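Prompt: May I have another protein with tokenized structure?
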Amino acid sequence: MFVEAAPAKINLALHVVGRRPDRYHELETLVVFADVADELEAVPAAADALRVIGPFAAGLGPGETNLVSRAVAAFRDRWPGAVGSGLSMTLRKNLPVAAGLGGGSADAAAALRLLAAHADIAISAEELMALGAGLGADVPMCILSRPAVAGGIGERVRPLASFPACHVVLVNPLVPVATADVFRRLDGHQNPVLPRLDQPLTRPAQLGLWLEGTRNDLEAPAIALVPEIGVLIAGMTQLNGCMLARMSGSGATVFGLFGSGALAHQAAHDLRAAFPGYWIAAAPLLEV
């Protein structure tokens, strides 16, 4: 059996800095990945197949399911015969759907990494990222699943050489948010770019100071659609040790950034008491 994790993507900062003639938005974002993930398992089979299980399988739309299958098909088209037999894949959906955590892009990236790891030829991360860009703008960053600054529509990825050890608390009110709906409510499309990110970035306090000059431009329109997001941000901000509370991606997941695991787990405990029924997780960020 082959197993590959699809870690949750978190946009610590997300600036919308322009709009292209094809109506896609130009972004600048600092992305990190948490040690909480969907899981993709595969066993050799006569033909490729996919089934979805797990706590959030029922909420998975056909677009995300098909993105994993599309990733497999694209890999086989690009490198025919590199993985000889078919694969029977099982996607365990542990993360909420349409939650601003990478979703189908992370799952598709996991499929590409799994195939490359078991191919008869050497396939570089750069080659996988180029293939993944044709599947979705977030797929290249999810292939790396490490701290990075991304630009363009998300496909231009610059991995960071260092990043401080941090922990996050993730909270989702279990209200799916369509990215297109959030962008339709966006007032401005030409916003200031990310501030310069000096390297090396090694201490949580250093990261926190830099993040004070950043924002998520999608937060306000998402709150207009799902007011619970604003309530969660306000509640997270009050918790002991929280350096930053913000929405990830286009929502509705809210994250809190913490300098220690003990503080993060206590915050998650407090949030479970305050928001029963919400999805809540505490986890370290994946390292460089």
